[in-house]
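=== Structure Prediction Worksheet ===
Name of assembly: unnamed complex
Input type: mixed (protein and possibly other molecules)
Chain count: three
Listed entries:
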Amino acid sequence: MPELPDVEIYKRYLESTSLHQEIQRTVVRDERLLKGTSPETLQKRAKGKSLNATRRHGKYLFVSLDPSSAWVVFHFGMTGDLKYTQGHSDEDYARVIFEFTNGHRLLFRDSRRLGAVIPVDDPESFIAQKKLGPDALAIEKADFDQMLSKSRGALKPLFMDQSAIAGIGNLYTDEILFQSHLHPGIRADKLEAEERTRLYENMKSVLRTAIEKNADPKQFPESYLIPRRRTKLSCPRCGTKIERLPFEGRSAYFCPQCQKNQNEE
DNA sequence: AGTACCACCTGACGGC
DNA sequence: TGCCGTCAGGTGGTAC
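=== Predicted Assembly ===
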């Protein structure tokens, strides 16, 4: 769910359902998701306003509250999503709710409660405060090259570092490296120009393709790793068994045949 | 700077 | 059936 493509899908969902409707009130069922801000602050900023402009940076979704200069930012953690409903259906795990005067409601649902809904002054200062890097779909080639050449670490943790590049997580890092035929443990600053170009282009095309396919792995191309991203399953390209390699408490899944580690030997 | 681990949370799954 | 460990797409903090 909540890496860049998923968040982009949520953004479009919110745009197609929840804009330009007067907010009657907000309901906070779990204050922990407000990250230190108060339910009263959210209520005060949202009541009588409507959701208007949206903006995504990496895995964060910003929505403006008009008429005012305030925004609210959504982060989806591991299990967050949005649901626009009428009545009281689909309420499981609804943690923060925007109720509109037309009787509809926008639910922020999150079973694991690792997400966040935070009133903020503006996206720019939030992005700066979180030290987020450039958005993965917006970053230009020269900045991408510089990011790689500055890093003495492995590709896998670098792509997951939101201060280096924002929006890519565990799942899509693996897909991008697989499509690029690059091992997750290769040192970023050791890539050749041709490999950097391949990586950049695959990053963009994987993210765009995922968005086009509604971030739904069942609709991904046959050549994609994500639908078979488990040990005991095999590489869609060569049939070799997929392997798992731990990085800082997370798992990289990759094909040992298609993604050789050039650092070694 | 890079890496390793824990914490925050809940749910699904496999083995016994 | 229950219990237990492990794993899961997130970030943040600490320690080396």
